[in-house]
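Ubiquinone biosynthesis O-methyltransferase
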Amino acid sequence: MSSPPLVSPSIDPDEVAYFERLAHRWWDTEGPFWPLHRLNAFRVEYIRERLCRHFGRDVRGERPLAGLRLLDIGCGGGILSESLARLGADVVGSEVAAKNVRIASVHAEWSGLAIDYRLTTAADLAKAGETFDAVLNMEVVEHVDHLPEFLADCGRLVRPGGVMVVATINRTPLAWLTAIVGAEYILRWLPKGTHHYRKLVKPRELIAGLGAGFIERDRVGVRVNPLNRRFSHTQLLSVNYMMLFEKVPETADILAS
């Protein structure tokens, strides 16, 4: 029995349908999601290092994220969720495409990992009063509608003192040339139509969407070498970038601590 489609202002039905069609390819490392598999190892190191620094953990530990509750928004087939679970985190993976949830759940079971995958939206999780030590928006914000409302919902999911990590593509001519024309039409690294220029997100739009309740703690650009397909850090945020925000505790919470 198929699950009824989720309804939310931030959900773009065309985006959901697009990823539903590709759902069976999530764990094919040579298929259409191979860039995510390559990128995953790179971004996991970023998340690991920044979360350990923020929460006072030993980054060299075998399970440095043990005891932290993480939300992987738009978890897809579970590529990032599984990596974080192996680092000890208590992971909830949320998705709006039912096929992705089924595939992620089956793969986690095969891998012997306990991950809480849910067919739900950030808005519904926020309404239910859920909170997390870290909320991860990795390659998600460029696929949603009504970005300010989506970011507001995601912000409500971060506990005071917790963090949100965002990875996305900047809306610049260079990003259009490299991430869309180059990656989708010339190199064919991604299926055509994966990204739409009008939906790419500038860093200032993330800052505005999260509002005064969040402080930017880190930002870094991401680049890929087209010859060896390896990712690395750069100071330039003109194409791909990642940012980390801390949710500021309420004044009353600070006085009571």
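thats it. Confidence is low (pLDDT under 50) at residues 251-257. Residues 104 and 110 are 10 Å apart (CA to CA). bye
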